[in-house]
Each structure stands twice: as structure tokens, then as C-alpha cells.
Design goal:
mainly alpha; 2 helices; single chain; 50 residues; 76% helix
């Protein structure tokens, strides 16, 4: 475990890659949550384009 922590946070490249992974996970979570929110809030009888 200490090896992986040193590999991820011991260098600038490891830290930046962890930040990219965390930011990507947050963005995916936000968009998934927003999509679920919009699906739950939508009107089932409403047809798009009319």
C-alpha cells in the first residue's frame, strides 16, 4: 500500500493523473445524476417536438 501511495502522490505525474481520474469521476457522476433528475422530472404524457 505504501508503494502505491508513493507512486501516486510522490511525484507530480502521479498527482496529476489522480486529479484527472477524480475530476472525470465527478463529471460522470454529475451528468448521470442530472440525467436521472431530468428523467424523473419529465412529464410522461409530453411528446417531444409537438
Amino acid at each position: 500500500m505504501a508503494f502505491w501511495l508513493d507512486l501516486m502522490f510522490g511525484s507530480d505525474v502521479g498527482l496529476m493523473s489522480m486529479l484527472v481520474i477524480i475530476a472525470t469521476t465527478l463529471l460522470i457522476s454529475f451528468y448521470a445524476g442530472y440525467f436521472i433528475y431530468k428523467v424523473m422530472k419529465s412529464d410522461p404524457g409530453h411528446e417531444a417536438g409537438k
